[in-house]
Amino acid sequence: MSKHPPIGGIVPLDRAPPEMSYPGLSPQLLARVKQLWSANGLDFDRHWRIGVRSLLGFRAVPRVDTSTTSADVDLVFLFDQSVLWVRALHGAASVGRDRQIDGLSPAQWHGLAALSARLTEQLAALRLLALTDLPMPAMQIARSVSEDVDMALVLLIRPKLAQRFAESRSVEEANDFWRRHIAGGRAFRSISERLYSVGIDHSADTEYAKWRKSVLSTLGAAVHSNALRTDLLTRQKGAVLLNGDSLHFSTFRIHELCAFAQMLKPELTETLAAAGRVSATTDPAASALAALAGPLSGIIVNQISSLSPQPATSRRATKPN
Predict the structure, then answer these.
(1) Residue 15 is inside which H or E element, if any?
(2) Could you read off the pLDDT of 99-111 as tens digits, one per residue?
(3) Which end of the chain is less congested by CB atoms within 10 angstroms, N or C?
């Protein structure tokens, strides 16, 4: 099996169309995404270069001559859309925090800015690990991504908790906050209760909750050296990714963050858009990302249906319909 270009080799030039970085991408998916952006008056190519191409360690998806499906490449493409939204969220949250935009408390803006910055770094690292065939550390990062998604949602629905988070300035205070309010599924239980009030049942006995617990258990097991059989991490012929579970679960969780945030706080999209409108910075790229957070939220939710039920290389739990 040969790759063109090899990982770590030449990637498309800065001004090349985004699709050049995704050899084998489904033309239907590309057309659908670009249509969604165009319908919202947004320039996909420009924002992709600002928010995805500029990532530290960015590289194109390797071409695999024997690949018989676009599923792996499509997954990376959708993952990168999620990265772009998180970076846009960070831009808007930073403006909201600095300019004290109405709609969220200062502590909630602070929390969103901090968590979206952390998520951006995690997603950039996860992307690099997934494309360089290092699945075990990728799985560890994916678990952290999921925890930070839960934490961001909790801060949106519990302003007093957001205030406690903002006041946690030392390592000891941050660790204590995590143990008391986030660890052990505490955050997810709070989110599930609030989602139930708007008609979504994610209680512990649902198929979704069981699937989520199963995936998190598998990702958590990556911390232990002998927890996973090595044959589960054997590259399949024609696969772009060694193991797509981490990328798939992280993409799914960012989609959930975007969708659930809008359900739990219906005014959030307009709040983010308001922050984007008042963005005033000497960095045009940062301003462009801040202005993107509101309109991109609807596009990300619309893309959920494009995310396949499970990664093509997965041999474990299946996400429920």
Answers:
(1) none
(2) 999 999 999 999 9
(3) C
Does some domain include residue 156? Answer: yes
Lowest-confidence range among 14-28, 85-99, 185-199? 185-199
* 3-class secondary-structure state, position 59: coil
Ordered DSSP codes for 174-210: HHHHHHHHTGGGHHHHHHHHHHHHTT----TTSHHHH
Per the structure, the count of domains in the chain is 1
In the chain, the amino acid numbered 294 is: G
Q: How confident is the model at residue 241 (pLDDT cuts 50, 70, 90)?
A: low
Is 320 a domain residue? Answer: no
Q: Is residue 316 part of a domain?
A: no
- Find the angle CA(140)-CA(145)-CA(96) to the nearest 5 degrees: 150
Residues 6 or more apart from 15 whose CB is under 8 A from it? Answer: 49
| Rounded Cα gap, residues 106 and 273, in angstroms | 17
Terminal-residue alpha carbon distance, the chain: 34
> Which of 9, 2, 8 is CA-nearest to residue 66?
2
- Report the pLDDT value the prediction gives residue 50, as an integer from 0 to 100: 95
Question: Would residue 205 count as lying in a domain?
Answer: yes
Q: What is the pLDDT of residue 226?
A: 44
Place of tokens 């909630």: 108
Q: How far apart are CA 59 and CA 52, in angstroms?
A: 10
For the whole model, what pTM was predicted?
0.83
Which residue bears the tokens 């999620």?
82
Count of beta carbons in the 10 Å neighbourhood of residue 272: 31
CA angle 21–22–26, rounded 5-degree value: 150
In this prediction, residue 308 carries a pLDDT of 61
- How far CA 30 is from CA of 123, 169, 306, in Å, comes to 21, 44, 11
Residue 219 amino acid letter: L
